[in-house]
Structures
1.
Amino acid sequence: MALMAGLRVPARALLRSGCWLRGAALAGAEAAAGLGAGVRRFGSQRVLVEPDPAAGVAVVKLKSPPVNSLSLELLTELVISLEKLDNDKTFRGIVLTSDLCGVFSAGLDLTELCGRSPAHYAEYWRALQELWLRLYLSGLVSVAAVNGASPAGGCLLCLSCDYRVLADSPSCVIGPNETRLGIVAPFWFKDCMVNTVGHRAAEQALQLGTLFPPAEALRVGLVDQVVPEDQVQSTALAAMARWLAIPDHARQLTKSMMRKPTADRLAKHREADVQSFVSFVSRDSIQKALQTYLEKLKQKG
Ligand SMILES: CC/C=C\C/C=C\C/C=C\C=C\CC(=O)SCCNC(=O)CCNC(=O)[C@H](O)C(C)(C)COP(=O)(O)OP(=O)(O)OC[C@H]1O[C@@H](n2cnc3c(N)ncnc32)[C@H](O)[C@@H]1OP(=O)(O)O
């Protein structure tokens, strides 16, 4: 741990801030490329939105150090940003990526699932459902530029997008590792897996809690492209251009036809799903398993 301005800041977070410095340099490059002129970044504390109105695309960056775990705050801020972009006719597509080095998203924030009240668990789960439904059914083209590890809930975010580009680095693992924590992915995560990689591959990955390295993720169809780390965003933007070449109304109706039945399974039973989660996560055995996992993570650090 390093001490900074009276706050305990993990050394890893300071290292990752190297990415933010690189981000500042990139901002200069963007300005030089014309993005700066009259185009302003917006967003919130944990979600940075870099709009390119001329292209109709916004790059949405998760920036909740140290690992972009999906806290209630991050979920809420992401929903708000997506809603804003969905309702703004300027935009036809988003690239979802991470502003941190080496991590796309660590999945659900385990501190939200440990030692809290049933009311808190319910609020948290509703926020996660809201984010998934909004992203999964968004009329915008969504491309995930997966520039870091993306376990469990991080993988769900990627699967909710239309297209996935993963960085070719051994640390960039992606997959549904829930069972390894002693927990169970919700049925709508399972459905997303099945829709993406097929029943057999999904069943194996979900039961075994597999975290796929890039080449395996590509082979199984969990991601669509694997490219060198420094080409993830440009490749995502190139993919976006291909998707944007299709008329919106035809693509959107097709997307809805493909995805609505899956989304409706949750939309029609949201409250039952909340209650099922609350009773599952409140069990002593699950609380113990989550605490133990969280402690192991902290000791590793
Ligand atoms: C009946 C059924 C009904 C409904 C469904 C029921 C239940 C479903 C319930 C839950 C579903 C959950 C899905 C999930 O997403 S669970 C989360 C799974 N995520 C993980 O396993 C990832 C764990 N993290 C890592 O593997 C690594 O941190 C990493 C690869 C992402 C990054 O590695 P680094 O070496 O770069 O960083 P670390 O040193 O490991 O971590 C830094 C720091 O961050 C803390 N942390 C990491 N991950 C999480 C997390 N997910 N939540 C909270 N905090 C996390 C870690 O402890 C370190 O903290 P300190 O700095 O030491 O304090």
2.
Amino acid sequence: MGEDLSWFQYEKKDAATSGGLICRTLQTLCKKAVLGYGRSLNCFWKASKTGASEDSWNPWRLNRSCSSRRSVETRNSHLQRSGSSMKQNPKKVFGRVTSWSQYLENGSGKDDGVNISKDHTTDLSELFLGQKFASGTHSRLYHAFYKQQAVAVKLIMPPTEDEALAIRLDQQFSQEVALLSRLRHPNIVQFVSACKNPPVFCVIMEYLPGGSLKNFLHKSEPYSLSIELVISIALDTASGMEYLHSEGIIHRDLKSDNLVMTEDLRVKVADFGVSCLETHKEDMKGYTGTYRWMAPEMIKGKLCSRKVDVFSFGIVLWELLTGLTPYSDMTPVQAAFAVCQKNARPAIPPHCPRVMAKLMKKCWSTNPSNRPEFSEVVKVLEDFRMKSK
Ligand SMILES: Nc1ncnc2c1ncn2[C@@H]1O[C@H](COP(=O)(O)OP(=O)(O)OP(=O)(O)O)[C@@H](O)[C@H]1O
């Protein structure tokens, strides 16, 4: 199974078959539908009502693959009659293209050892997968529709050749699902469903079309964000984090990459793969976040408190004010060493409002108990917003 399970292998093999071509066309069309014709099923309903061309929408249902030749109308009724069986053999239509997704088909789509409520189990017949839009270290994120809602599907495929890593990813998946499924807050990515059909794990969550804050900052000129926008994004992040901490959860990997944006530039906290309950800190020793954002005590492998997130928030605030990557002249390991051994911190940008400079410095204090709680951070930012109006 080893070689066959590589994501890249599948993508290469897919492309080499005519089925692969159909699949890629479908994916492109699907992207067009998702990106170009609106980000909800409305576009599909509109297209089917007006008899628009097939280019408008070509979703690809996971375990009930539909032919690219079908009429929009047929697909519409297909959508409405969830679970209706397909007359054609999907393999004939797509060749090997469904090879990676068939891992979701093989199982029931029900949770297998994942601690989630009945409401959150996955009905795969309701899942239409689109194009891949982002990747994590061991995951791929796909556009999709689930129960008529635009969603992001995160597929995780632990490597077969590295048992220790596979076990860790399995734990991270269970952790992410267990934590995310109980959270509900406007600044936390909303969990929808999850399933675990080894070797593929799947998390379905609300889709945020604005991409990550990191991408947004990279697309912007350095130092170009207005102070209003900086405050708004910082407040969204701090509010999400305040809620998370009030639920007894430490994120442990807060960074601009893990903050995702709506179209109107509101921000939500995502990626709970290495998060943990404050009461279970011991269980999570050895799990690491990302060095450039990491608190010194975490780099040193000490037992961490929720204040590690406050440290990371200080670095995110600096990213917002500068639009730059922290310690960009160093490798991540060099940055970690400098933070721990030399007490290095990013340089406060010129013309930085005093309130913000003070807040950043407090957040990235070496002593965790000198760092503020997120409730205090929210208050400082709200006061500052009032004063700068
Ligand atoms: N719900 C979402 N909507 C839109 N984009 C998202 C969503 N969730 C995550 N992303 C994007 O996908 C990227 C990867 O997601 P995520 O961080 O959850 O994966 P990961 O495997 O944990 O990544 P890493 O290994 O880098 O921590 C994020 O940086 C973000 O840009």
